[in-house]
Amino acid sequence: MDSLIVQALNGLASASSLFLVAAGLTVIFGVSRIVNFAHGSLYMLGAYLGWTLTSHGPLAELGGFFGFWGGVLLAALATGLIGAAIEFLLLRRIYRAPELFQLLATFAVVLVVQDIALLIWGPQDLLGPRAPLLRGATEILGLRFPRYELFLICVGPVMLGLLWLLFHRTRFGILLRAATQDREMVAALGVDQRRLFTSVFALGSALAGLAGALQLPREAVNLHMDMAVIVEAFVIVVIGGLGSLGGAFLAALLIGELHAFGILVFPRITLVLAFLVMAAVLVLRPHGLLGRKPSGLLPAAVPSPPLPRAPRWLVQAGAVALVLLVVLPPFLGDYALSVMADMAMMVLFAASLHLIMGPGGMASFGHAAYFGAGAYGAALLAKHFAAPMEVGLVFAPFAAGIVGLVFGWFCVRLSGVYSAMLTLAFAQIAWSTAFQWVEVTGGDNGILGVWPSEWARGKLVFWYLALALCGLGVVLLRRLLYAPFGMALRAQRDSPLRAEAIGIDTLRVRWVGFAIAAAAAGMAGALFAYGKGSVFPSFLGIPRSVDALVMVLLGGVQTVLGPLLGAVAYSGLQEQLVRISDLWRLVLGVAILALVLFFPGGLAGALRRREDDRA
Amino acid sequence: MLRVDGLHAHYGRAHILHGVSLDVAQGEVVCLLGRNGAGKSTTMKAIMGVVPPSAGQVLLDGKDLAGRASFEIARAGIGYVPEDRRIFAELTVEENLEVGRRAAPAGSQGWNPERAYTLFPVLAEMRRRPGGRMSGGEQQMLTIARTLMGNPRLLLLDEPSEGLAPVVVERMAEAILALKREGLSILLSEQNLAFANAVADRACLIETGQLRHTASMAALMADDEVRARYLSV
């Protein structure tokens, strides 16, 4: 009983900081319609800045009450300024770009901030100072409870109250609420949206920074804080309802308590619990607990031009390339062969995501889940049943396809941002399963000894195997696009209403498309596992999902060939970057930002514009 | 005071306005008349910058506003009341008015909530009510009041009588005439000829995105042939 009370109070304390992060995220989304993936990075920056301010420099020398709390507040303000700068320098330039590009840009910021934090603060965990006046414990109901936790418990409701006052009693807040409902009308009434956007980013970022800095006395600062918190914040915002502060508060309490008690009851699957709650909430209330169906104007669907048949020269070029890929490899070294095999798998991986994003018109930010499901499916068979590669390769697409069916069932029911967030959350859940379920998956150590069968061990034979299977996968995916199913898929993307009216079950078509894409990604993942001889949780990690996204966006969502070229270009570039530089995240992040800023319609969009000009 | 010259506008690739030209004098009420889809609303949106015009000029007191952001156009003195009202449904009446509020130019009597309530007394009784829980007529009054709070010199009213009960339409006409007596210049669009006749000085007839005919309201009412050509369905 006693431990239950302590856990309940612990849960309330975590709920407070989760609420601060989620509140910032939801406020920013409400006004700007940007899902800020970099919000976790701002939280992390707040913690690092707080650490620096409270343990170095003049405030640390001052020490005591003002030293600590001054440092925390200053860290929150500085994070707010950083957020405003990100809006001003980057996002402002791409408000007109497609939604996916905005998300990609904030992803790039995550990568850049990771490496910058690594450069400034180093890889080790940093311990912050204790909070003055709040050291030690207080007795409640005969139980000793840390004072700082009690303080945190109060922070949540107090901030909710302050934010409520801000939103209902100040002109700024009223404008923010109005802009959340109808930005265009607010502008027509003479309000400068640019200033509103910059200030809402500053506000949201300052909240994230405050949450990060307030964590100092509770836990060590490290480089994994960003991803850990952003996924939870997404879960909370989605459960609460996008744009709803009260909903975020309720959901934060729910998730905070769920974690606190989940650790007692099911220590290994806390994230899965949160996901189950989210799934239940979304099934019952598709717009979250307190969310409303988006009012005002829905974003206009972007009808895509019909897919052209491949021109003759392209078919010929493809045939020549294929002949070269078959004839040349015997003359290449082992290293080149394994890089090429990896590229072939990335091509299939990208092509599978393209099916969802291009013809399917859905966004997936967690496609690595299916890549990893295939890889782990094959590896688990090998480890626990000593299954040979042939069995693993047959089994993997089914394993991934089934995971795709389960996750997809939820994702295809939601639209736009909700759906994208859900895919990301699912991928994180898959990742945490692989990471936490040590007995089965080996946890962080992964599963070793996943080797190909005897006949396929040579690099050359394995290359031909990869080429054959990935080539087959890509051809099948391509064939699918022009089959009746592919047409139905494209029809529901361009106009769900009209597709329904001619008898297409849009949900089902999307669901099946999702599962097929997952199965194809699973095939790529299984091959990847056999190529490396091992699987690790990183196969399911966010960076790998981002890889897939960048490959597709780099090549262009609207073309069939684009993702293939994008995959070759990007995986080649990354391979080289990782080899030559420790700061590959920074370089990659900057490269993505450059792509987003200079080709806001994608490379394919830029090409099409040129063709339009000529026509 | 307002002079629109050769205004073109597109929705995507569809060319909607083909060079609309019109003007509104100080204190004048001009009515855009035309059938559904003739381009009345688009003309208003293009003047306001809600739909960016692809060519042409929008001169307010000689200053060209075409191509500017709509918040700048609003600040220059044009108030826009959209056809679909676009009330902030989750904001109260008071808060809706607050969003529209802007400081009055020096030396002029500015609008404030109390003055808006004098024009539309029914709003005073529901200051705390969310916009989403008001009737169509109340919303129409609120959207006009909200725009007036920005102290515009020229008011764009897109179909103010649309979908309203006859008694509310009468109230709306009285309000517009009251605004006119205070010297506000108004460009409105209408399908309701009787309403237009009650409030407007002059009519501009628009068809397939072009201005076809302009005449005083009285002359138009006397000219059966023109009315049949441009307005009858």
UniProtKB/TrEMBL annotation, chain A:
The chain crosses the membrane at residues 12-35, 42-60, 66-91, 103-122, 150-167, 196-216, 228-254, 261-284, 313-332, 344-371, 391-410, 417-438, 461-481, 511-530, 550-571, 583-607. Its main location: membrane. It is found in: Cell membrane. It comes from the Bacteria. It is a multi-pass membrane protein. Keywords: Amino-acid transport, Cell membrane, Membrane, Transmembrane, Transmembrane helix, Transport. Belongs to the binding-protein-dependent transport system permease family. LivHM subfamily. This is ABC transporter permease.
UniProtKB/TrEMBL annotation, chain B:
One of its GO terms (molecular function) is ATP binding. SUPFAM superfamilies: P-loop containing nucleoside triphosphate hydrolases. Keywords: Amino-acid transport, ATP-binding, Nucleotide-binding, Transport. Residues 2-233 form the ABC transporter domain. It comes from the Bacteria. Gene3D superfamilies: P-loop containing nucleotide triphosphate hydrolases. This is ABC transporter ATP-binding protein. Belongs to the ABC transporter superfamily. PROSITE patterns: ABC_TRANSPORTER_1, ABC_TRANSPORTER_2. PANTHER family: ABC TRANSPORTER ATP-BINDING PROTEIN, HIGH-AFFINITY BRANCHED-CHAIN AMINO ACID TRANSPORT ATP-BINDING PROTEIN LIVF. The keyword Signal does not apply. Signal peptide: none annotated. Pfam families: ABC_tran. InterPro entries: AAA+_ATPase, ABC_transporter-like_ATP-bd, ABC_transporter-like_CS, BCAA_Transport_ATP-bd_LivF, P-loop_NTPase. The keyword Nucleotide-binding applies.
